[in-house]
């Protein structure tokens, strides 16, 4: 492989804050090193072996929903190339692989018995991982709701939570003899808000009260599944959930700015953390929602179910933001009578997603969670970046920017650990370039380049960087 440096089209004006030796020395023994993917983004084979459509199959066919009209129909052909992809993880010396299970592949239509052909794929995947010495980490839901359940109302409808628990048991029954770590949901904020409030993700609805109902029913589904999986377990397992969270900085000490940051933190983090950890929704968030005429549809016993004990909290982090409560005209209340909240730039370098690179926000977030929720061990279940990768004649990408991103954010994790945060691993997003939701295939997050014309896989510089870090940590 040609490892000569190739220029990136987007200069990256930041460097890692710690050298590799210091970084490795600061991470605890037993620290996980891994990668993450999701089913719809890599598997393809959408109509193979009994799989039925998900909301993303439907959304991809809505005119203008996805950049370039892309779909996940083929994606990375992981469904047929899985053994080679597992071999890639092995070659990179990583010990953990977090993947999601496709609900409509395992339980077509979202109801009824398990689909033997569908679950057989994940059965083979788990066996392949274990044979290569890689720990399988299952995520039960990464946004691919069966379309029939959306037709019945989707996550805003309470019954979907019960359907999720039923589906979860089908997967658990098949794989629990070999899988130790289980995540119920990936990023319920995205499922609820991007899918039902803002309409930029499947199913593409713009109904804010429905989105708030979806938040509650996603969390209820998590709790129901957690209770049932725990009861059914015949050996020790770790159960958890993954949240996408960030630090919300106020633009100043002015009260409107402090309030804007509080509201952002309330809807983005505490709306999920408080019921999971303490069995209650934050009173200030309930009041904020009520001011807009929205209520959380809690029924008796729901919060006890949602707060069923978990063993690990997954944290996905990409960026943090600064908030102001002042409009550009200086007003603090909008035409709708509600307080103004808007973001201001932190004046940091940006990725190809136009996301600011804020590793210090990562440290602040992890330390804050460890302080406010001290009984929740954490694993970084996603962290990564998209850049304008430029491949050389051999398909190799010298992605210095992505390597520096990983280094700076691993240093941020190490800083949080030094401040007392219980963080037990780091899973990079993502193993492969893949279908990046509404952005289609234009945005590349992979540490392994995928040539979409040939499906060839070529590890990037960042993959080799993570490989070397993991090896140094293991050998220290």
UniProtKB/TrEMBL annotation:
Please state the Enzyme Commission number of this protein: 3.2.1.21
Q: Which SUPFAM superfamilies match?
A: (Trans)glycosidases
Pfam families linked: Glyco_hydro_1
Alphabetically list the UniProt keywords.
Carbohydrate metabolism, Cellulose degradation, Glycosidase, Hydrolase, Polysaccharide degradation
Top-level taxon of origin: Bacteria
Query: Per its UniProt entry, what is the enzyme's top EC class, as one word?
Result: hydrolase
Q: Catalysed reaction(s)? A: Hydrolysis of terminal, non-reducing beta-D-glucosyl residues with release of beta-D-glucose
Q: Which family does it belong to?
A: Belongs to the glycosyl hydrolase 1 family.
This chain belongs to the protein called Beta-glucosidase
Q: Which organism is it from?
A: Kribbella alba
Q: What is the lineage of its organism?
A: Bacteria, Bacillati, Actinomycetota, Actinomycetes, Propionibacteriales
